[in-house]
Amino acid sequence: MEIDKAIRECDDRRLQTKYNNATYVVQRALALYSIEEVAFSFNGGKDSTVLLHILRAGYFLHKKGQNSVNGDLKDFPIRTIYFESPCAFPEINSFTYDTAAIYGLQIDTISLDFKSGLEALLKEKPIRAIFLGVRIGDPTAVGQEQFSPSSPGWPPFMRLNPILDWSYRDVWAFLLTCKVNYCSLYDQGYTSIGSIYDTVPNSLLCISNSSNKFKPAYLLADGRLERAGRAKRPSTSTGGQIPAESNGLTSQDSYKNSMLTASIIAVGDEILFGNLEDLLGPYLCRKLHSIGWSVLQHSAVHNNIDSVAEEVERQKSKSDMVFIYGGVGPLHSDVTIAGIAKAFGVRLAPDEEFEEYLRHIIGDQCTGDRNEMAQLPEGITELWHHDKLSVPLIKCENVIILSATNVPEMEKQWDCWIELAKSSDLLALLEPYVSKHVTTSLSDALSMVRLIFMCPSFFLIASD
Ligand SMILES: Cc1cc2nc3c(=O)[nH]c(=O)nc-3n(C[C@H](O)[C@H](O)[C@H](O)COP(=O)(O)O)c2cc1C
Ligand SMILES: Nc1ncnc2c1ncn2[C@@H]1O[C@H](COP(=O)(O)OP(=O)(O)OP(=O)(O)O)[C@@H](O)[C@H]1O
Ligand SMILES: [Mg+2]
């Protein structure tokens, strides 16, 4: 079988592992469901083209176990569904039908929306599971596993996502290594294809001396920018810009003129054993105080997922912002990020954008098929990039993760954080604050306390 052969003969270990895992998912699904009970959702896009060949290879390997296989191009009995739309690119339509003809796909074309179309299909056919080319990083992938039941409100079926953990880079490595056809739009600078109304070529591939000539999609160096050619929808991903609604604080107005609160969490056994003097916590306390924030608590916890999770869970609801440092790195004992994911009840998932930053630092020294440091809490993570930082600051809702291990590094990260916060709506919250001293002739301390409670803003006044 040509796909299986091409992957086994290539020398890309990462691709081989991704391929083995994906075809394994296909084989397990085919062991669980009969051929009549599965369907393949194919739309001619690059991810579903990868999936087509993974399914062909997975089916071949499944049948090989039963000694009843010929590996022919047209040996593909899985029902294929295509939701046709008048808004689709003609190139996508023709590629879909041409591919169906080459590989003998039995295509059911559906002209309804996804949900109604699936409802009608499932009434008519015994389908129980559908293969999709969804990948982590797609807006619809959040919370999905390789086997994910359809969402509440959708007809009941299993979503099968064999290439869920593939990156943009993996997709192109596969298509080019296997030398299979893909839709011609990808050679014209399109990197992710939606409808004709929301998709243009990716401007990052524009050939500099020409406004309408683009390089092919596989030359996009940073997979995180795959959707740069898609019309913007509300999203948590920032691409270096900080969205107004994402400062992690609940309501701006309620904070105006009142004191913002922070908690600081240090993670590290060495601090608790007394082997290391913690200089970073006091530094952060001073910095927070200098911008008028009140530090409610500064705690230290063990390098252990549950200790981090419990402390983050406590502090994130108590304070406006939580700053956490220590336990961020490549060691097995570095569990801060896993603890934060646990505190928010989300899983760790590969973050393609973060992986690209790490790749630039580690370069070719990066071995293996998965960079564990690029696993970040799914659906709640924003990367705040600053030119002075080699990797961005990581923000999970109102928790800021600082990877500094010494004061000069912390100073740099703090300065960058302040600058980035100023460029977002956090600016209003970082307005200079004025501390005023009063002298009173009131004789007893109790009267002084009363005065503080009656007009606190006199003691802490925002500049406006
Ligand atoms: C076969 C199939 C099954 C789907 N199942 C679900 C589902 O269970 N829950 C859901 O919210 N969306 C489901 N969707 C919709 C997708 O999540 C998503 O909205 C769709 O692929 C459009 O993506 P786009 O807006 O990026 O083009 C399904 C789509 C397809 C084609
Ligand atoms: N119109 C459709 N008909 C059938 N399946 C679809 C359709 N739209 C999306 N899908 C399914 O959802 C998956 C994810 O869609 P998505 O647009 O992210 O990927 P793609 O179209 O394969 O590639 P690209 O990201 O380049 O557009 C597809 O691989 C396919 O399985
Ligand atoms: Mg698409």
Automatic annotation (TrEMBL):
Reaction it catalyzes: FMN + ATP + H(+) = FAD + diphosphate
Keyword Ribosomal protein included in the entry's annotation: no
Keyword ATP-binding applies: yes
Pathway in which this enzyme or protein is active: Cofactor biosynthesis; FAD biosynthesis; FAD from FMN: step 1/1
Domain MoaB/Mog: 263-424
Top-level taxon of the source organism: Eukaryota
MF annotations from Gene Ontology: ATP binding; FMN adenylyltransferase activity
EC number assigned by the record: 2.7.7.2
SMART domains to which the protein is assigned, alphabetical: MoCF_biosynth
Annotated spans, Disordered: 229-250
Family annotation (Pfam families): MoCF_biosynth, PAPS_reduct
InterPro entries: MoaB/Mog-like_dom_sf, MoaB/Mog_dom, PAPS_reduct_dom, Rossmann-like_a/b/a_fold
EC main group: transferase
Keywords for this protein: ATP-binding, FAD, Flavoprotein, FMN, Nucleotide-binding, Nucleotidyltransferase, Transferase
Name of this protein: FAD synthase
Natural source organism: Glycine max
Gene name tied to this protein: LOC100795114
